[in-house]
Amino acid sequence: MAVAQSGWKLSYSTSWAVEDRSQHMNRASALARLRALIALKGTLDLDAYSPPHELLQILPPKSTIRGSDCGPQIGPNNPKFILGMQALLDLIFAVEGSVSEAAKFLGLSTGALSRFILSNDCLRLALNELRFYLVI
């Protein structure tokens, strides 16, 4: 009797590892990382910067620029979270990887933005990859 094995493997560098034996979990995680990296293709005009609605929706309620019209904060399980994550990574890319500079644009303290980034593994990994890219 033959045993067949299947699974998704997506790697762009040795820093990414398969997180789970579940095909669906690995696929979702790989797609999230890929979308985050695709987000880095755009450029931002920091002089006229205004955070997009998608980014405002994922920000913690502490943010001084997050109005009541954004609705409740959305989390990583919401499909729209990735759009906010992309916008955040675009901003951090535009400020050359500086979390403290990005925090100023978002009305957050550096610590609050750092805690937000560290609260989501996909976001943390994407930011580390971004910083590696900026160093090269």
Description:
The protein is an all-alpha fold and 136 residues long. Helices cover 51% and strands 0% of the residues. Helix 1 (23-39) crosses helix 6 (121-135), helix 3 runs parallel beside helix 6 (121-135) and helix 4 (99-106) packs across helix 5. The N and C termini lie far apart (50 Å).
Strand content: under 5%
Helix/sheet category: mainly alpha
Largest sheet: none
Mean pLDDT across the residues is: 79
InterPro entries: Prokaryotic/Mito_RF
GO cellular component, one term: chloroplast
Features:
single chain, 136 residues, mainly alpha
Short description:
With 136 residues, this protein is mainly α. The chain is 51% helix and 0% strand.
Describe the protein's topology:
Blueprint: H1 23-39, H2 53-58, H3 81-94, H4 99-106, H5 110-118, H6 121-135
Helix pairs in contact: 1-3, 1-6, 3-6, 4-5
